[in-house]
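(Fold this chain)
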Amino acid sequence: MKFGDKAFFIQIHIMESSTSYSAELKENNERGKFREATVDLIAGSLGGAANVFVGQSLDTVKVKMQTFPALYNNMFSCFKTTFANDGIRGLYAGTVPALAANIAENSVLFAGYGVCQKAVAWAIDTPNVQDLSPLANASAGFFAAFFSSLTLCPTELVKCRLQALQESQSLAKNGKTKVKSVGPWMITREIIKNEGFKGMFRGLVPTFAREMPGYFCFFGGYELCRHLLTPPGKSKDEIGAIRTIICGGVGGISLWVAIFPFDVIKSRVQVSNTASQPMMKMLFHIARTEGVMALYNGLGPTVIRTFPGTGALFLAYETSRKVMNEFFDKM
């Protein structure tokens, strides 16, 4: 065989090897993207469950104060009255749909957040998502919240109606008839029967108005706090459990303080079948007739529950994400 023939066959072999390597690299990249999305989905679900178990009782107090401001002057009287009338079960009313809401929302939110981080990194020409600024991460959270809102709205609708069931039925019966026990599936069937499937998305517009700017502040506050609390020579993933809880709490408080008036509107729209005013018109109506502070009814229990609740969410998310990534790396 001549030298030219050998060179030709060597070139063909190099081209075949290169093609094979490119295909394998593409397959590995696709597998890596699927793994990252799966890890974020599971970790977000675990974080959402942790958030519910830590803060559900005070979330019930928040919804009651938002929906029936004339009945409850402060969170302590609301907590005391609810506990006296219904016990622990009353404080944890709506836990099943709350779990469904938080698991669905946070799994989609964190999976979407990972995808949106990559999209933002591509848009601003940043090769590694770990190098994104707090503002860029906040933008990724803003876009991710659009998708999570679609899963959150129906489940939170059922949760809010269960939490406010005592007051709704008592007012309807003038307080004379004992409130009957109703579960989440019965509430769901009743909504679909009376309002159709689109009734499950009552309050979707104020949910968007709450979630998207809210999660801009949520992830922005979390990432900014992580940036500030990261010791020199270490990465943000190495700040430890206590700092992670603090950063999560800061992110959660940033979210609620920024968007609480829209949450008040959402709760009223979802609990009341008659509230059909446009969102902004309803906001100005409440401010004019009940005072501006009515838009912040329930903020106290929300802030109190948010710090440990969101701290638990991010601790569960970051820890489970780290464990799963280490597990997959060893496979």
Notes: The two ends are 45 Å apart (CA to CA). Residues 3-67 form the longest helix (65 residues). The mean pLDDT is 81. Residues 265 and 283 are 7 Å apart (CA to CA).
